[in-house]
Write a structure and sequence with these properties.
- With 158 residues, the chain is mostly beta strands.
- Among the domains are: 68 residues, no CATH class; 42 residues, no CATH class.
- The mean pLDDT is 79.
- It starts with a strand and ends in a 27-residue tail after the last strand.
- A 3-stranded antiparallel β-sheet has the order 3-4-5, with no helix packed on it. A two-stranded antiparallel sheet has the order 1-2. A two-stranded antiparallel ribbon has the order 6-7.
- It is built from 1 helix and 9 strands.
- A hairpin with a 7-residue loop joins β8 and β9.
Length: 158
């Protein structure tokens, strides 16, 4: 990152090598606390690498627009499929996409996903129940990979 004469560089060490695969690259920063987190998530393999970025620069709205819209001052690689800027840190992990009324198995029986909170336990296939680390919601555009989809029996174990 560069802002005026200030320069900040951070490296994230992974074991990705040269194998071609889908990766979600995320930079989350907390401007008031001058701290950021750079992450690489491989959703197909459940792999996640993260590193803390100390003394990170805040990004102004003008620069955010320039990064996304101004091809003459910023270049985005052709392989980048999606860019988003949020007004609050967003958790990493599976993308939103389930209705709040969708049922999830818990040790005490099925519950609506909207009723699941952090610290609750949910059942997983062929294993012991696991603790929910984060529960919340995010508003996203209903476009592209965020488009609603219908799952039908007998696919995906339904």
């Amino acid at each position: 990152m560069r802002q005026g004469s200030r320069h900040l560089a951070t490296a994230l060490k992974t074991t990705l090598g040269t194998k071609v695969q889908t990766a979600h690259i995320t930079y989350i920063w907390d401007a008031p606390n001058r701290k950021g987190v750079l992450s690489a998530h491989i959703p197909d393999q459940g792999m996640l690498w993260q590193t803390v970025v100390l003394a990170s620069f805040p990004i102004c709205l003008r620069d955010a627009h320039r990064i996304i819209d101004d091809g003459s001052s910023c270049t985005i690689a052709a392989d980048v499929n999606f860019i988003a800027i949020a007004d609050a840190p967003c958790p990493l992990g599976p993308l939103p996409g389930l209705s709040g009324s969708a049922a999830v198995d818990t040790p005490s029986g099925p519950r609506a996903i909207r009723d699941i909170n952090a610290e609750d336990y949910v059942s997983v296939q062929n294993g012991p129940a696991v603790k929910v680390l984060w529960a919340g919601h995010a508003k996203v555009p209903a476009l592209g990979r965020f488009s609603p989809m219908t799952l039908r029996r007998p696919y995906m174990g339904l």
